[in-house]
């Protein structure tokens, strides 16, 4: 499964925690999420829907490959 966690700040610990929180919210309780997978590789203007997610829960998720709809 491939997805991006979007934050306002560059904080690996938060990104990993939010990734685990999101995975648990979709029923994936045994996922291994590693620090080296966090590379803060994107920097762009945040789309409105993603901004709403970040403002309401502290993070947003961009679903890329193998994620539920």
Task: Provide keyphrases for this structure.
single chain; 69 residues; alpha+beta; NE1680-like fold; two-stranded antiparallel sheet; 2 helices; 2 strands; 16% strand
Structure description:
The chain is of the alpha+beta class. It has two helices and two strands. It has one domain: NE1680-like fold (Roll), CATH 3.10.510. It has helices at about 10-25, 50-55; strands at about 1-5, 60-65. The protein has a two-stranded antiparallel ribbon. The protein is globular. It starts with a strand and ends with a strand. The mean pLDDT is about 85.
Computed over alpha carbons, the radius of gyration is 12 Å
| H/E element sequence | EHHE
How many domain units? 1
The class by helix and strand makeup works out as alpha+beta
CATH architectural group: Roll
Q: Approximately what portion of the residues adopt beta-strand conformation? A: 15-25%
- Distance between the first and last residues' Cα: 12 Å
Helical fraction equals 25-40%
Task: Say what the CATH topology is.
Answer: NE1680-like fold
In the CATH hierarchy, what is the class?
Alpha Beta
CATH level-4 homologous superfamily: NE1680-like
Describe the oligomeric state of these chains in a short phrase. single chain
**Average pLDDT metric:** 87
Helical run tally: 2
Low-confidence stretches: none
Provide the spatial order of strands within the biggest beta sheet: 1-2
Largest sheet: 2 strands, antiparallel
Total beta strands: 2
Approximate shape: globular
């Amino acid at each position: 499964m491939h997805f991006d966690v979007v934050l306002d700040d560059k904080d690996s610990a938060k990104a990993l925690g939010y990734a685990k929180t999101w995975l648990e919210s979709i029923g994936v309780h045994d996922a291994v999420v590693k620090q080296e997978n966090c590379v803060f590789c994107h920097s762009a203007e945040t789309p409105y829907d993603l901004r709403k997610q970040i403002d309401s829960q502290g993070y947003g998720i961009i679903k890329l490959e193998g994620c539920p709809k």
